[in-house]
Structure formats: C-alpha cells, structure tokens
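Problem 12. The chain below contains 1123 residues. Write out its predicted structure in token notation.
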Amino acid sequence: MPMQRTKDCAQAHLLMGWVLAGGVALFWGGGLSGAASAQIVPDETLGVERSHLNRNVQRGNQLIDQITGGATRGSLLFHSFEAFNVGQGQQVYFSNPAGIGHILSRVTGSDRSDILGTLGVDGNANLFLLNPNGILFGADARLDIRGSFVASTADSFLLNDGLEFSATNPEAPPLLVVSLRPGLQPGGVASGTIVSAGNLSAGQDLTLVGDRLDLTGQLQAGGDLTLLGNDVQIRDSVTIPFVASATGQLLVQGDRTVDIFALNHPSSGLFAGGDLVLRSPNAVTGDARYTAGGNFRIEQPNGGAGALTSPNDPVIRAGGNVRFGTYTGASLHIFAGGSVTIDSVEINAPDPVNGIQETVNLSNGGTIAIDGRTRPTLDVRAGTTAVGTPGVTGTPPAGLDTTGAATSGAIAINSIRISQPNGLVFLSNQYQPNADLTSGTIRVGAVNLANDAGGGSVVIDARDRLQVSGVVDTSAVTGNAGDVQFLAEGDLELQPGSEILARGFVGGAIDLSSGGNLSFIGDGDPNPNDDDFDIEAIASVTTGNGTGRNVTLEAPSIFVGDSEILITLAEGATGRSGDLTIRAGSFATDFAAIVTDVVGTGTGGNVLIEADTINMNNVFLGSVVAETGVGNSGTLTVNARLFSGVFGTQIGSQTRGQGNAGDVTINTSESISFDGSVFVPIPGDPFFAPSGAFSSAQPRAIGSSGRLTITTPVLSVTNGAQLRTTTEGSGNAGVITINANEVTFDGTTSNSLVGVSPSAAVSEVLRGSDGRGGDIRINTQSLTVTNGAQIRVTTEVAGDAGNIQINASDSVTLAGADPTRRRLSGLFADTQPGSTGNSGSITVTSDRISLEDGAQIVVGSRGTGQGGDVRIRANRLALENDGFISAETASNQGGDIELQVRDLITLRDNSRISTTAGTARAGGDGGNITINSEYIVAVPAENSDITANAFEGRGGNIRITTQGIFGIEFREENTPLSDITATSEFGVDGVVEINRPDVDPSRGLVALPADVVDASQLIARGCSAGGALAQELGEFVVTGRGGLPPNPTEALSNDSVLVDWETLEDATAGVIESETPLVVAQAQPIVEAQGLVRQPNGRVVLATQPTHATPHNPWMAQVSCQG
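Solution.
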C-alpha cells in the first residue's frame, strides 16, 4: 500500500541520515577515523608534476587544506591521487592557477572517496573528480565551486583526439595541448556507487556519474544538473528534504532503473529552470514534485517516450511542454505552461497524504472540485500561467525561474484508465490560461472510469478544439455512473468509433458544449426498431432506482452522423430517465437515432431541441416505452426557425409496453418540411419508412399514443412523408394539430419508388386495438393536398375513428392522385372492412374550397359502424373533374353532408356529392344532404350528381336553399346527365326539397305621414337664361319605395329559382367597321329643374323631368329674374 511504503521509506531515510551523519565507518564496513577519512595521498603517476597537499593554508579568516601542483596542459590542470578523502569539518580547496579553466582529478588507488566536509576550488575553474571505487558525500558534505563539478565512478574521462584521463590505466597526460571533449563523457563502465546525503552546490553545472546513485541530500546547480547511473535512487525523509535544483536542465538517467520517492518532506522536489528529463529504458518510479521552467520529459535512451510509475501522488509542473509515454500509479497532477502529451495513464489509487485539493473554475462559469486525496485523480492543466500554484508542496527554491516560454496549450492522451471507484479525470487548458497562446487542442482516446462500485467522472475544458477518438466510459454496476462534461471554445468532435457511456444505478450526466462545431461521426448501424441499441456515440442509462442525469448538447453547429444518442431507464430499474436537451444554431443529422426510453418501470425523459435551422436525414428522434416498460415516455419538443426532415427521418413518441407515448410538438418561425422515405431491408419484411412526425401505441401496448402538434408559418409534407398518430394497443390514438399559414401535402411523383405510400396526415385505430382514433385539426390560411396525398382518420376495429377539422381562412385545394398507385388526394374519415367502430366527421371552413382531378372529401363506413358527417362552410365551393364529396357507407346509415356556401357551388366533369348508403348492397338509409348557397351551377352533359340514394334502406333527404340552380335538376333516378336524386333500389325514396329564401314584402317599409306634401310649392320658379322670365314652373313628385317581381303583374314565386339551362346557338363573332359622320349637337336651352331624384346611393339631385308632385308655394314672395 502507498501509505506503508511511505512509512517504511521514512524510517529508512532516518536510518540513512543517522548512518551518514554519525556512523560512516559502520555503514561502509571500515574502521576509518576522521584523520583516515581525511587522507589525501597524491600518487607518482604525474612524475615531477605530481600533486601536493598543503595543510592549514590561510584563506580569508579560515584555515584550509590546499592542493597545488599537478600537470598543466593548456587550460587543463591534471591531479592524480592514491587516495582522496575530505574529513568531517575539513575544507579542501584546489588551487586555481591563472589560465586554468578545468581541474581534472583522479583516484588511482583502490579506496572510495569520502567527502564529509567541504570540497572547493579556489577560483572559477571547473572541478572533475574520478574514482572508480565510489564516492560518498556525507550529510555535512559541501561544495564550494563557482564553476562546474563532475563526480564520476567511471574508469576515465574522455578527451579530444581519442585521448583519455584514466584512473585504471594511469598515465601522464601528453605534453601537447589537450582540450576537453564537448560534454566531457566518462570513459568505460562506471562500477562504483555515488552516495550523496550532503548539500552539493555548483555555480555552473553539477554532474554525478556512477554505477549506482543513492541520493538523499540536496543538489543545486547554477547551470545543468545531471545525474547518471545504471541505477538511480532518490529518497527524502520527514526531517530531511531531497532537493535537486538546476537553473538550467535537470537530467536523471538510470540505464536500468530510476527510483524516486520524495514526498515525505513538504520542501522536497526536483526543480529545473530549463528542461527536466527522467530517462530510462524501463519505467521510472517517480513519487515526487517536479517543476521545470522548460519542458518535462520522461524518455527512453533512444529518445522515445518513457514510462512513469508512482505508487503515490506525483505533481508535475512545467513552464513548457510535458511529455511521456505511460503513467501508472496514484493520483497524478500536471501543470504545464505548454502542451501535455501522454500515451496512456492508469490511476489505481488516491493519495490521502499528498494529493492536491482545490476548487477550479471552469470556462462556462461552473466549478470542479479537485481532490487527489480522496478521489483517484488525473489532473492535467496545460497552457496555464499557474505553474507555481500556491498550495502545492515542493515550491521551487527562491530565484529559480520556472516560467518557460510555451507555444501551445494542447493536450493529447491516447488512453486513460482509473481502476478505483469514483475517479476523476480533469483535462483543461482553460485554467488561468496564458492569453498569448493561440492554439490549444485537446485530443483524447479511450477514457475508462467504469467501476462496479461507482463510475468516475470526466471534465474536459478546451480553449480550442476537443477531439475524442475512443470510448469514454463512466459506468457502474452497483453504484452510480459518473458524469461527463466536455467544454470546447472551438470544435468538439466525437470521431468514428468513439462513445460516451454513463450506465449505472443512476445514469450519469453528459454535458457537451462547443463554441464551434459539435459533431459525432460514428460507424455503426442505428436501428430504431430494436430496443437494444448499438451505441455509437452517447448513452446515459439508469439501471437502479432513481432519476437519471440529463444529457445536454450545446453549440453553434451540431452534426450527428452514423451515431446514436440514448437516455434510458433500463429493464428492472425504477424511477425516471434523464432529459435530452440540444441547443444549436444549426442542427444536422445523417443516419442517426436519438432516443429516450423506458425499459423498466418509471417515466421516460423529455427531449428538447432548440435551433435556428434543423436538417435531419434518415434520423429516428423519439421518446419510447419498450415492451418491458411500465410508465409513460417523455415529451418531445422541437423549436426552430427552419426544420427539414428527409429520407426516412421520423420524429415522435412510441409505446410498446404499459404506458402512454409522450406528446410531440414542433414549432418553427418560418417553415417545416418532411420529404421522402427510406427503404428498410428487414429480411422477410422489407418496407419503406416515411419521413415525418408520429406518435404510436404499438401492438400489445397498454396506453395511448401522444398528441402531435405542429406550429409554423409554412408546413410541407411531400413525396411520401407523413404525420401519423396510431394505436394498435389498448389506448387511443393522439390528436394531430397543425397551426400554419400555408399547409401542403403533396403525394408521390412519377419518379417515386414503387411501394412508397403517398404523403399523408393520419390518425388511425389499427387491428388489435380497443381504443379510438384521434382528431386531425388544421388551422391555416391555405391548405393544399395534391398528387394522392391524404388527410385521413380511420379505424379497423371497434374503436371510433377521429374527426377532421379544417379551418383555412383563404383556401382549401384538393387535387389529383398518386401516379403510381392511383390513390386519390383528399380528406377521409372512414372505417375499414370488418370494423364495427364509427367513422369520424369532417368539418371544413374556408373562403374557397376546390376539389379537382378526382380529389375527395369522404366520410364513410366500410364496416358495420355509422358513417360520419361532412360539414363545409365556405364562400365558394368548386368540384371539378371527378371531384367527390361523400358520406357513403357499406351497410349502415349513410352520413350527412351539410354545405353552407355563401356565393357559389360549381360541379364539373363527373363530380359528385353523395350520401349513398349500403354500397355493399346491404341495409342502411341514405344520409341527408343540406345545401345552402346563393347559386349552384353544373353542366348538364357532364354527369355531375347530388345523390342521397340507398339500396335496401330509405333514400336520404336532400334540402337545397338557393337563389338559383343551373345545369342540374331533380330526377327520379340517375341518368347520364347531371342529376339530383334521393332514391332507394328496394326501399323508400328520399325527399328532394329545393327552396328559395322567403321574401317578406313588409321588410324595410317606413310609415308615411298622413298629410301629403305639395312638393311643387317647395321649389322656386325657373329663370330663363340671359335674364328672360321663367317660361314654366318646375314639378316635384314624391313616390314610395319597394321592389318588383320578375313580372310586374305577378307575385314572387319559388319556382323562379329554377332556371332552365340554355344552349347558345353557334355564331361567328366579328368586327363590323363603318364610317359615321361627325354630328355637332346644337346648343339646347337651359331647362329648369322640375323635381328631386334620390339616386341608389342615397344622393339627392335636381331633375328636369317632372315627377307629377303637387307644387308647393314658398312662404317668401316670388321674385322675377331679369338680365
């Protein structure tokens, strides 16, 4: 366990500190005294240039031991010793002659070097210490070196030109000038161990090279710090920190192993102003705090990405980029000013002692709690300025610059696995972001946080693009699923093969938000007819008791292709599935399934889609109750400016179990269009699935289908698309309501595939149901139904069909037939053969109604139920070319037809209005026809009929009230002419009654005064023109008002409404041209007005013709007119 290892290591470090500080002889197994350990014995390999030890040399106010002599070659000074040790409290300095930049020392004897005091250089030269037998730096060891220091247990130092300075083959350096090889490499295999428990500090580079490095003290380099060994082990203790600090690069390389544990002391850590590199061919064990001003890398000797393991909780901070291959261990925290690249991460535990605890703000205003102590956590923050985050232990030493320059805040991790419950993955380049960085894509592959006891959560917050290429799984078995939250200021992509799964006792929340394009591109085969969806994108599934979390997608543009989104209450679960909310500027789908469903017991979640434009291609968007489900499905609401559903797109709700299907509502501010169908090649039962909106109760369902409501300025349903509510179970079909300015149903075209049904709006009760049909209500300015399209309510069983109600303020146009299947356009409320339920009724209200080219308005019963009625209210009604209004039945009472048409009804080319009963030559009385219209016009020879016939029952009654009927007349039986009939083949004929509206002669009369006014006395005498005297008096006559019959000698008669149809004789029209002389009219004398005349508009004018009224003398004296 990590805690046990921490305790054991702490005890070991205490022991090591005691051994190094006070028991060096015991630890090394020797009997060296302080004097013995201070032995510095020059050898004779340099001859006359041998090294010299000068004791007690005054240096400032201290006495030191000084090493002089040696062989000088250019800027190099060589020293060679039989033994080299610095005792505790001893200070040994190498003399630094002028011009010397490098001092190389070797130990040719067989003893290791014990550095227990201070080792320094009396100048700025670099110091190299070579001892193949090993080197020990005690707890009180110190370096006083302004230049660089290199300690190595290799055999030699390699120089240029193939030369070397060897401890195992000691020879005097050549007399010629030599120079250091760049990067001065140790020669041969380092066989000795370097142990460092002291405080080693170099003004420039500090390098330790050994077969094994055991490091427990502090190492500080003004330049680079390099730790090279076959095995490198680093430890701290609760009382003694381990600090490795480099102003430049820090490199820890173990050709076999790198084993770092430095979490016991809060000041422990590895720090670099430049890059920090851990290098090994095998996995690096690295429990520590790492801080780099430049890049942080774990790599193999060949430069490939290396592996990191950490039983506890490492923290990595880098001003630049972070890169390694794999990580396995406890909670991992990474703060990078640049990018982070990791192949795979596996988190297997939290760190209850050292884990970071922090509440982090997200870019959307939310927060996330980071707690590596209680939750196994992967915490990666890239592109941040917070490399030296307060509260994170292992703070860099003062003056160390860890703010390296970064060029990108990208994050790339191929796979993530957290094996413990309740894990957390947090990836962000939005945490205190560096505003100078212009890019920051986050790419992640598989993220597996699934755990039986409780799934972990994933939060990714990207300043640029976010790409997911694998399965993100936060599922659980007995616990709750974790949540998934993806935030991206740029595009958010779920690439082929990617999935987001949050299945658990309570399904997890899934929240995807993008500032650019949000896209799911799968490679699966979504099947809306299969309860067991093959998930290709997103699923939140609740398997226990409770309310599932919600799924939310939000972006300016969202595309779902070859993918599925599923929110479900699973079989055996009780509660409620979560809701699905999609908000976008544009929302497009291609071959997708988006579903909330109830498979267990409870309520399905609601679906809400809000977008400016929605384009769906071959999509199933639905709320479903499955066969095993008990409960209602959720509602489905779509709000948009423009909506288009094509190629088999279906939007709706469905119940297959015990519960109602939810309501479906589609609202747009401009238009809605459904078009076409798609072939579904189910083996043995292939079919065409139409585009459209629906709500259905499937066979064996116990529940009703939902209501379907569409509100839009323009609705277009074309090429086989349909709006449909259906019941095949025990419940009712839902109501279809359409509110629009323009509504168009257009059937299939000549290019449509065979087997494609025409476009339609249908509410139906199918075989197996005991419910009733829903109504279809359309409120619009204009309704157009063409090319075989139909609006239909029907029943196949005992349940009644619904009604059709059309309110169109402008026009209703029904025209044509399906060119491939000869289905007629129209409005239909009927029952199917074998049914016992009643037909619904049809009510149409409009200014103008037109039935053309075989179009029909039909209520009828082909079963044993009662036929419905047709009620039409309009200003004009036109039936042309087989137009048909019918209330016929097969064997029951015919329905009634009521036509209230203010102005005109026309019947042309074999059009019919019929309430015939018993078309199956069975019983049933003909229905009644009531027509009120100003005029009714037909062409006699075109065989347009108004019939209320029957076979065995009584003929129906026809009552017509009109001002005039032209071209059609009552006859005892049907003829090839245009007829009005109410006959019964074996029963009593009906009655045909044709009425003209009654006229009340007294209507509008005004009582006149008893005294007659002499109007002639109310006008002045006339004046002649030019001053002549008046020639004659004018007259004014008052008459009553009223109207006249067609013949002045006769009263009004009802028979006058029947006007025989006259046939015009053929005549040739022409233009007759003639010359007419211009006649100039002579001036007529002015004639005085003789009376007043009231014009039809009520205006009173003077008239020259007398009205034979008695003149009236004015009360003023008459005046003569003179010129």
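Discussion. The CA atoms of residues 28 and 510 lie 61 Å apart. Students who got a different answer should revisit the alignment rule from Section 12.3.
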